[in-house]
Amino acid sequence: MGFFDRLANIWRGFLSLWISDIESRNPEAVYESAIDQRVRKHRDLKKAVSGIVYLRNKLSTEMEQKERDLKDVMKQIPIAVEDGEDEVALVLIQKKDELTGHIERLSAELSKVSDQAEEAKRGLISFQSEIEKLKREKDQMLAKKANAEARIQIQETLDGLSTEADIKALDGVREHIDKLQAEADIGSEIQGDSLDAKLAKIREKAADSSAKVQLEEMKKQMAARKAAVAEGGAASVKKTI
Which of 23, 80, 120, 212 could form a disulfide with 88 if both were Cys (CB 3.0 to 4.6 A apart)? Predict the structure, then answer.
């Protein structure tokens, strides 16, 4: 292999890699191109199938006409024989044989073309199904691509976050909350030893003592009233006796 041949091979290799890279980064365009190519082939195939169908219909029409002609000749032959027109009868018989042979050839050709037409139509339908399948595949693959890209982007975002920074931030928040809690605890502890707290305790005790004195006084008054009522009742009973 010569130098220029090797150089050409290398260039084709680079070109192939470049095209592959472009195709991998533009899957939608690749799918659209493949679908368009199949649509064009389907259009060409449809024209070919229509040509076969046209030939089949033409042969069928021609054979039907020949069969009608044969029926007419078959009706004319007995009449010519009966009328003694031997020359006419011979011409009609020759025409009958020609029509019969022609119909046989048309029938064989029509059978062959009809089979081709049916096979072509099945191929056309199958090709159309392949196009629809490729369209569905395009939608599915593009959806998978979008989902994978989103997941990769999320993962890259998470990977880009500094774990140490997160830990430091959490430690700072925890320390701040602990300091606030300690400040609240100190306030509660100091509040119990303050002058205001002591005065409040004294006032509570004084109020409690005053309430107890009043309660005892009320109990004594109620007991005195009950005793007076009892003595008054006893005196009334003595006078009655």
Answer: 80
Residues 63, 107 contacting (CB under 8 angstroms): yes
Sign of torsion over alpha carbons 141, 147, 148, 153: positive
* 73 C-beta neighbours (distance < 10 Å), count: 19
pTM, whole model, 2 decimals? Answer: 0.46
Percentage of the chain with pLDDT > 90?
Answer: 14
CB 146 within 8 A of CB 103: no
Domain ranges of the chain: 3-161
User: What CA–CA distance (Å, rounded) separates 101 from 2?
Assistant: 66
DSSP letter string, 48-63: HHHHHHHHHHHHHHHH
Please count the other Cβ atoms lying within 10 Å of the Cβ belonging to residue 100.
15
> How many Cβ atoms from other residues are within 10 Å of residue 113's Cβ?
19
User: CATH fold of 3-161, please?
Assistant: Helix Hairpins (1.10.287)
Q: What is the Cα–Cα distance from 101 to 7, expressed in whole angstroms?
A: 66
- The residues, any chain, with a CB within 8 Å of residue 109's CB and separated by 6 or more, are 59
CB atoms within 10 A of CB 64: 12
Residue 105 has pLDDT above 90, yes or no: yes
CA distance 112 to 53: 12
Average pLDDT for residues 151-165, to the nearest whole number? 69
- Three-class DSSP category at 162: coil
Q: With 0-12 CB in 10 A as exposed, 13-18 as middle and 19+ as buried, what is 56?
A: buried
Q: For residues 44 and 141, give the distance between their C-alpha atoms in angstroms, rounded to a whole number.
A: 28
Which tokens go with 177?
A: 């909350």
